[in-house]
Amino acid sequence: MNDWIAIGALALVGLLIPFGMMAVSYLLRPTVPETSKRATYESGEIPTGGTRVRFNIQYYMVALLFLVFDIETVFLFPWAVVYLDAVESDAISLLEILGPMLLFVGILLVGLAWAWRNGAVQWAQTPRQAATDTDRQ
Amino acid sequence: MVEAITPIALQNDETILLPERIGDLTGLDQFGVGGELLAAFLAAFIVGNLMLAMTGVAGPWAKRKITAAFTDRIAVNRLGPAGLFIIVADSVRLLSKELVIPEQADRPAYDLAPIVVAASALLGFAVIPMGSGIHLADPEVGLAYVFAIAGIASIGLMMAGYASSNKYSLLGGLRAVAQNIAYEIPLVVTGLSVVIFAGSLQMSTIVEAQAATLVPLGPIDIPAWYALVNPFAFVLFLVANFAEVGRNPFDMPEAPTEIVAGYQTEYSSVYFVLIYLGEFLHIFLGGAIIATIFLGGPAGPGPAELGIVWFLIKIWAVFLLTQWLRSAVPRVRIDQMIEIGWKGLLVLSFANLLLTAAIVGLIT
Predict the structure, then answer these.
(1) Can you give the residue range of the structural domain that contains A78?
(2) What pTM value is reported for the model?
(3) Is A61 on the interface with B (CB under 8 A)?
(4) How many domains does chain A have?
(5) DSSP string of B262-319, one letter each residue
(6) Is A23 among the domain residues?
(7) pLDDT for A104-129, tens place per residue?
(8) Cα–Cα distance, B50 to B46 (Å, whole number)
(9) B102 contacts in A (CB within 8 Å)?
């Protein structure tokens, strides 16, 4: 039997379960419409300003870094799978198997070190925050 | 040692999977493609409901009981034996809550997010060998598949956070995604160090490779579970996994002291249940991955039919550990979380991968 048929079947079940629960809930739950009930929650206060607020640049920095390393792990997968077979066969020397990967990971680690030095993986602070920093490190 | 970790290099095709078994038992396999599809659906239905039942036990009952035990209190004990019937009462209570959708919500995304979170977690269980023949599918890319599917939840969380149009939700969603992506790489890279031992991504091959004997200890043979072969990788994987499923000490996406309930602030009724269901499924999926690639999967003393029991014990042990940490370990701050992930775990996981590769290369 094809594996992906079974996975597709589980995907179907994975959709049926939420939809089933939503159907049951639809039959059970009350509806009491009130205007103020649907306001955005802000700890009981009247919401101020828009909700698309400005947020820390850091989220963007780590997302960029993630892209680089995620693609790297994709490239590592085939290497890891064939590694043992390659080591066990005597045709190639260990240096030839390990070397290119060391170089590849090494280049990326240099990239990480660069990002580290530039503070990309350090939580960004506003100048005022930095001035009043009372953290116990 | 050298012989113990020598794996089965060939892909194994002999595993009888659950859909085939059901097709055999019910005679559905005589009806061609239609019967095959129906058997696959039945098998998926069994696996899906097994996981749903476990979440049902974990969420309303086990979580409360465990936390109560750790904090010296009494939890649910009124309904049924040891309060077990609270599961039924709570399910009805949660599902019969009114669904309040905020005016500003971005509708299709707001409604889809809970479904994405719940379905993506459930899909991961397709490739997990649970023992006693409960194994839905065994593709050659099993491990890569399970990491990929588990990663989809980040999209669901982002959708929930953004579409709610709430400041807490937005920040909670961003935190959740920043955390997931920071710990995804250490998780996958540490998982790769297991692949180096097993020489395959196929789940059944990884489990089989762990059946070898590591050291004979008197009458008992200590199996070559990768948690024992490479304990360093095991600890790294555990930490990265807890961050990945957003459990303590890494639970700031929904830190109530900072951002109310994070991405699920605006969710009520069945949507809230679905997001919670997804989170619990993710804890169990994390436990299932740990059990499969580090703890020998369904292996354990006794006959092979007991596999599912051992498997459930292992994933419940991981669940117990998450609840233990919840009671015992303080939450880290968001800046500490980013630094632990990118400066600590990432570097350590690469060190682990390269060391493992070098050691395997030298002793083989």
Answers:
(1) 58-124
(2) 0.88
(3) no
(4) 1
(5) GGGTT--HHHHHHHHHHHHHHHHHHHHHHHHHHS-TT--SS-GGGHHHHHHHHHHHHH
(6) no
(7) 888 888 888 888 888 777 776 767 77
(8) 6
(9) 38-41
